[in-house]
Design brief:
The protein is mostly helical. The chain is built from 21 helices and no strands. α3 packs antiparallel against α12, α10 packs antiparallel against α11 and α16 runs antiparallel to α17. InterPro entries: Cation/H_exchanger_CPA1 (IPR018422), Cation/H_exchanger_TM (IPR006153).
Length: 589
């Protein structure tokens, strides 16, 4: 195939992905499902050659950037607060599902041994991030979204490590402790690699001072974490997730706003094209896979039946796991409510002691490593505040039966299942049949759960929940910090700022904060009118600038600067949410 044909296929695939992603949500259908169906339809055309996507390309070239991008966007604070529950979903549930499904496959497919059956169970165990995209667009509970995001990030790695151990067991005897040791080694070494890679990546990008270079460097980080981890036989995907979490947690501190905006926009584009390409390619391979099964001893009908049973069992196992998990979260909330008052009393006493303890003089060094009383009290104060805030978070965003139902129904299979199935060794008995079963589970969950997830979310009453919280109170904290800083600001060289400059900055900042506070007081309709009018006024200013550019009456550099300022103002206005979250139907306003 010549390069022109490859280029034509790439352009056509990108156009299809864009069109499907834009139109499928309007029809209430998950775009991955449409892409798989389209791919299967394209494979029937007589002029379309057989296409085989190497699984290594997906595991090493597609999953690292996808997982890294998702990890960067994951709220690290919320991830920490629900880490135990996320760990249970992404590790314990994967192990339980793999073993139980392995026993089921061993019974349904007598021609395979138990190790191969568990390997197939590991293949269909991890959930896909597609559900997260759907429920996030619908405005579901941020806590539910975070748990789904965290699960889809970590269970990919745990399932693939278990798959690797199961495949090794098909060729040699492997003990349970060897599997546990391999899992611990793969995860531990990966974290030790991924964390410093993420940290170094942030420091390098901080020094670049250029949005395009910073984004380009972000494309390097996931592979810089993945490759050495795989060379050391650790989990490259865990290393990628660790690097992404470190990057997401530190980006606001170390990167410029321009860098973060450019990174977010570019990575969303990469996610869209890569994920869509995988589903499209898997659809194109479907009929070749069916032909291989028909040439062997199996049948498509048998594979469909096994996949349907496995899909139902996956749902039952997930329900049986999530139900007590939600109960434990409710118990955690009750326990937190009981100790909150005690923590508040401790915090009040510590606050009084901190206020009464003079801070160490500037430049004063500690002798023999002893820490000052003020510093120790401030650390205790910070710990108590964090613990109290964690309890408030759990109490304010409880997980009940509705959220549990959403967690169960959102457990769809997707990219990782399709890619992992392709990694089964070529000598595996009935390999094509097993791959087709895995494909059937992924396709079936996307079809049944993916197509009904929006309806289920609406029926549960979890659509359009208020995620703004107490924004005026949060802004008051930032106003207080600004007032304290502007009381006696100093330039980097220690000299004072001009009084007129200080007065202007103070006026501009506080005026903008007051305007943002007013957003929370406006009704939904009045806020929509405000934003609509403000954007219309900006559009009128832009039209005038463009008319001036066409007339050539002003310097082009000045016009460019003026347009940039309008763009920044428009972005700031569009990011303001008002009193209520934007309903999915209003997202284009």
């Amino acid at each position: 195939m010549e390069y022109v044909e490859y280029l034509t296929i790439a352009v056509a695939a990108a156009a299809v992905i864009i069109a499907v992603t834009a139109l499928a949500p309007r029809a209430g259908v998950a775009s991955p499902l449409v892409l798989v169906v389209l791919g299967a339809g394209v494979s029937l055309l007589p002029f379309v050659p057989a296409i085989e996507v190497p699984p290594e390309l997906i595991l090493g070239g597609v999953l690292p950037p996808l997982l890294y991008s998702a990890a960067v966007g994951l709220p690290s604070m919320d991830f920490r607060r629900d880490f135990a529950a996320i760990g249970g979903l992404s590790v314990t549930l994967v192990v339980i599902s793999s073993v139980l499904l392995g026993l089921l496959f061993r019974w349904l497919i007598p021609d395979i041994d138990l190790a191969t059956a568990i390997a197939l169970g590991a293949i269909v165990s991890p959930t896909d991030a597609v559900a997260t995209t759907i429920v996030k667009r619908l405005g579901a509970s941020p806590r539910s979204v975070t748990m789904l995001e965290g699960e889809s990030l970590l269970n990919d790695a745990s399932a693939l490590v278990l798959l690797r151990s199961a495949i090794a067991a098909t060729a040699a005897t492997v003990s349970l402790w060897e599997v546990v040791g391999d899992f611990a080694y793969a995860a531990g070494v990966a974290v030790l690699i991924g964390v410093p890679i993420g940290w170094v990546g942030l420091r390098i990008r901080k020094r670049l001072g250029h949005a395009a270079l910073s984004t380009a460097m972000s494309f390097v980080v996931p592979f810089a974490a993945y490759l050495p981890a795989e060379e050391l036989h650790a989990s490259g995907l865990v290393a990628v997730v660790a690097a992404g979490l470190v990057t997401g947690n530190g980006s606001a501190r170390h990167l410029r706003p321009q860098d973060r905006i450019a990174e977010r926009s570019n990575w969303h584009t990469v996610e869209l094209l890569l994920e869509g390409a995988v589903f499209l390619a898997m659809g194109i391979q479907l009929f070749d896979l069916i032909e291989d099964v028909e040439r062997g001893n199996g049948s498509v009908l048998q594979a469909t039946g096994v996949a349907a049973i496995a899909g139902a069992v996956v749902l039952l196992v997930r329900t049986a796991f999530v139900t007590p998990l939600i109960g434990l979260q409710a118990r955690r909330a009750r326990r937190g409510e009981a100790v909150r008052e005690t923590l508040s009393g401790f915090q009040d006493r510590i606050d009084l002691r901190v206020a009464a303890t003079p801070s160490p003089a500037a430049g004063n060094t500690e002798v023999k490593g002893r820490r000052s009383t003020a510093a120790r009290l401030e650390r205790i104060q910070g710990t108590l505040r964090r613990r109290t805030a964690d309890i408030d978070y759990v109490l304010a965003k409880p997980l009940g039966w509705r959220e549990g139902t959403l967690l169960v129904w959102a457990g769809m299979r997707g990219v990782v299942t399709l890619a992992a199935a392709q990694t089964l060794p070529a000598e595996t008995p009935g390999r094509s049949f097993l791959v087709l079963v895995a494909f059937g589970v992924a396709f079936g969950t996307l079809l049944v759960q993916g197509s009904t997830l929006p309806w289920v979310t609406r029926r549960l009453g979890l659509v359009g929940q208020d995620t703004t919280g107490d924004l005026p109170a949060l802004r008051r904290e930032t106003v207080r910090a600004a007032r304290e800083f502007l009381a006696d600001p100093r330039r980097p060289d220690g000299t004072p700022y001009d009084d007129g400059v200080v007065a202007r900055v103070r006026k501009d900042m506080f005026r903008e904060h007051e305007s943002q506070d007013e957003d929370a007081e406006l009704t939904r309709e009045r806020f929509v009118q405000y934003r609509e009018l403000r954007l219309a006024a900006i559009a009128a200013q832009r039209e005038e600038l463009l008319a001036a550019r066409a007339a050539g009456t002003y310097d082009s550099a000045q016009l460019g600067d003026a347009l940039d300022l309008l763009d920044a103002e428009q972005i700031a206005v569009e990011m303001r949410k008002g009193k209520l979250p934007v309903h999915p139907d209003d997202s284009d306003r």
